[in-house]
Structures are given as structure tokens and as C-alpha cells.
Amino acid sequence: MNLHAYLNAWAAGRPVETAVAATIGRLAEAAFTLGDAVGRGPLADDMHELVAHHADGDAQRRLDVLAEETVVDRMRHAPVRYLASEESESALDVVPGSPVAVAVDPLDGSTNIDANAPVGLIFSILPALDSAVATFRQPGRAQLAAGFFIFGPHTSMMLTLGEGVVVFTLDRTTQRFTLARPKVTTPKASREYAVNGSNARFWSDNVRSYVEELIAGADGPRAIDFNTRWVGALCGEAYRIISRGGLYLYPGGTRRGQVRGRLRLLYEANPIAFLVEQAGGEATNGERPILDVTPESLHVHTPLIFGSRDEVERFLNHVAPANIANFGDGAPQAAIRM
Q1: Is the CB of residue 40 less than 8 Å from the CB of residue 26?
Q2: pLDDT digits (tens, 9 = 90+) for 130-139
Q3: Domain count, the chain
């Protein structure tokens, strides 16, 4: 079944669902364009070239700019009232009177471009409220749909409409996204974990000791060996972990700019958390489920821990004694040091 037929069958003529389906269709068009640019690699313009810094201060590369322009163009042809993007300081008014809003990271993992490693496009679809501010301050549980496109050995979309998780893969013979996996379920346990170990000196003691137990493997208190995986793109980690289990860790720490975590709540953590929960996993900021946190601004950061339910629970039990971070809703917390 192709994506268009799948979405039409799901929407079944219902107004809001039809708007969601149309929006996902336009995002798929954007992904097709971006996938082509990524696939050309060094034969295209120097897509890795640094051209500016975006609203959150990160380096902005030529492919980031192309991704932003492509998504904005496609959303202007969708029933989207507001658009929030990692690449823009404020939300855009798109199509007045439309029933849905989109939050997007147009190009996740852009530093991977010149290394021929995965990059992607992450999106969240929300009900549009009376203003952009109100719309993008809804907690993640208000999401109508979420997913990401990943450009790797093949181009795929992992999607949830709130009824489980499915995967569509771009069939290059027909130029259509085709249903490849009708139901994705995350195993409850796994021996793989993903963490940026270069940040270890900035972590709290209890986070560090948890990771040290994983590293110790069969010689440590866990008495089993673990494998580390790290690809440098959230969509790549999420695709693997949601598909076959594992644990993703990006806690806050004392490193400059990362006390409240490195990832953005609205257009990174929330859509990934929606997918994770729909596949049977768990996603948390260390104190509460990610989907229960109210964003205080478009670009607010959050710690993010997600994956196989048993391992997330074990992590939470390990780090429970203390906390130094805020958790994304503007109120200082004091239960868990992350």
C-alpha cells in the first residue's frame, strides 16, 4: 500500500484527519526533494558548507537552508496554520484558518553530511489553536501525528498517527513511499545503548555511574555485556532503537548550554517520544514522561532518555536520588539529578 492510499483510508473523510493526511503528504514531497539532494552527495553543491548560525546558535549549513526552504514551500501548499522550525527564531503564519500546525527539524544530523552518514527530517503535527504561542505550548500528548524521514541506505519514514508505529520506504522504481512495516514494536529489553561519551565529565555522578555499569558489562554489577551505538543523528538512533530495542541517553549536565539538555523539546524530543510510546517503549526527561512536559518556548531544551521500557525504568531507578536541572516547563525541579 502506498502512503497516499494509507492516509486516505485512515482519514476516512474526517476533517482534521484529512488535514493531517494532506500535511504528511506534503512533508513526503519535501523529503523526496531532500533525499535527492542528500543522495547526490559531493556531486551537488557543497551542501556541508557553513553559511550561518540558526536561531538556537548551532551552525547552519547549506543543506540546512535547502531543507528549511523546501519544508516552508511545501507547507504553504498544506492545510497548516502555523509552522515552527529549528531554523527559524519565531513561528510562521502559513495558511490562515487551517486546522493543524507543524513543528519541524528540517535537517537532523547535518554534521553527518560530508561523512555519508544518516540525516533526517523530524516532524510533529498539532491542533492549531487561536495563536502560535498557544499552539506550540501544548504538551506532546496533544500531538495528532509525528514521525521522521531518514536518508540512509534507503529513504524511509517512521510514522505514528496515534495508532501504533508504521514504516514507509521510498520505492525508487515507482517514486512512491510504500508501506514496508505495518507494525513496529520495541522490545522491552536490549543490550545496546547510545550515548555521547565525550560528555561524561559533565554528567552528574549518578548518570556517570549508570553508564559505567553498562561499560563494565559482564565484569560489573549487570553481569552481561552491552554494545554502544552512536551515529550522531537523533533520527538514526531512534529508527534503530524503536525497531530493535536499546536505550538512548542525552542527559543534561554542566557543559555550557546543556544544563537543561541538548535537544529541543518541541520538534525533536516530542515527536520521538510519541513514536517511542506508540511502539511500546518509554521516553522521559528523567523526572516525567516527555509527552507530559509543557514547552515554555519554541526552542526550549530538554534532557531525553528513551528506548526499551525495562532499561529506561532501570535508568530512572538508578538516578532517582538527586537533580540539578530544569525540565522544560519553567519550574525548577529537585527530585532527580540529570
Answers
A1: no
A2: 999 999 999 9
A3: 2
Q: DSSP character for 269?
A: I
pTM beyond 0.90, yes or no: yes
Same-domain pairing of 26 and 117: yes
Q: What share of the chain is helix, strand, coil (3-state, %, to 5)?
A: 35, 25, 40
Task: Look at residues 114, 147, 181 and tell me which one is the last residue of a structural domain.
Answer: 181
* Vertex 265: Cα angle to 28 and 202 (nearest 5): 125
* pLDDT above 90 for 222: yes
Phi first, then psi, for residue 168 (nearest 5°) are: -110, 140
Residues 134 and 279 in one domain: no
Extract the C-alpha cell encoding 296.
Answer: 515554555
Whole-angstrom distance, CA of residue 130 vs CA of residue 81: 10
Q: What's the rounded Cα separation, in Å, for the pair 267 and 122?
A: 7
Judgement on whether residues 62 and 95 belong to the same structural domain of the protein: yes
Show the domain range for 145.
3-181
